[in-house]
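Backbone-to-sequence.
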C-alpha cells in the first residue's frame, strides 16, 4: 500500500501543466448529463455593489442599519447578506457560533478587541467562538459589508452573557425578507 507521501508525489508528478492542458476539454459544449438530485437552481443577484439601489431591497434592522439578504440556507444553517450602516459608533457585541466571511464594499470598521481594521476592499475571516464589538468610526458616513454567516451571532453583554441571537431563522422572520424572497431578489435553500 502506498504511503501518503507517495500518493502526493504521484499526483504532483502527473499534474504537470502540459499534461493538464492536453487533457482539458477545450470545446464549447455544455454539460449534457443529467442534473444531480437535490441541486438547487443557481443564484445571480445583479447590482449587489450598488448601495444606492432600490430601497425596497433593504430590510430595516435597527435605526440607520439595514441588511440586504442574498441567500438564506435553512438546511445549511447560514446566510449571506449585505449590511449597510449609516451611523457611527458601536453596532453590536457578539460571539460567532460558526465561521464568518466578510468583504468590505464601502467604508471601514473594526472590532474593539482586535488591532486590525476592515477597510474598503478588505476580506476578513472571523472564527467560531470569537467575541468582539463592532465599531464604525466617526468619520465614516456609510459602511457596507457583505457577510457570509455560518451558524448564528450570539449577542452578548460586556461580560459575555447572551442577550440575543440572530441566525437564518430570525432573518427569515422579517416580513421584508419574505417579500424579497417572493420577488426573486433573494434565494432561500431548503434541502
Amino acid at each position: 500500500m502506498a504511503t501518503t507521501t507517495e500518493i502526493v508525489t504521484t499526483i504532483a508528478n502527473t499534474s504537470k501543466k502540459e499534461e493538464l492542458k492536453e487533457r482539458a476539454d477545450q470545446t464549447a459544449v455544455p454539460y449534457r448529463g443529467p442534473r444531480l438530485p437535490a441541486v438547487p437552481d443557481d443564484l445571480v443577484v445583479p447590482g449587489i455593489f450598488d448601495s444606492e439601489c432600490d430601497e425596497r431591497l433593504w430590510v430595516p434592522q435597527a435605526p440607520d442599519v439595514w441588511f440586504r439578504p442574498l441567500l438564506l440556507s435553512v438546511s445549511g444553517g447560514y446566510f449571506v447578506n449585505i449590511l449597510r450602516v449609516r451611523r457611527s459608533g458601536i453596532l453590536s457585541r457578539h460571539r460567532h457560533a460558526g465561521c464568518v466571511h466578510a468583504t468590505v464594499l464601502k467604508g471601514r470598521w473594526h472590532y474593539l478587541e482586535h488591532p486590525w481594521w476592515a477597510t474598503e476592499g478588505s476580506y476578513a475571516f472571523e472564527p467560531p467562538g470569537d467575541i468582539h464589538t463592532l465599531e464604525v468610526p466617526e468619520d465614516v458616513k456609510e459602511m457596507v459589508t457583505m457577510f457570509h454567516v455560518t451558524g448564528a451571532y450570539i449577542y452578548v453583554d460586556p461580560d459575555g452573557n447572551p442577550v440575543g441571537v440572530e441566525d437564518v431563522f430570525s432573518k427569515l422572520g422579517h416580513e421584508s425578507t419574505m417579500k424579497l424572497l417572493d420577488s426573486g431578489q433573494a434565494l432561500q435553500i431548503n434541502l
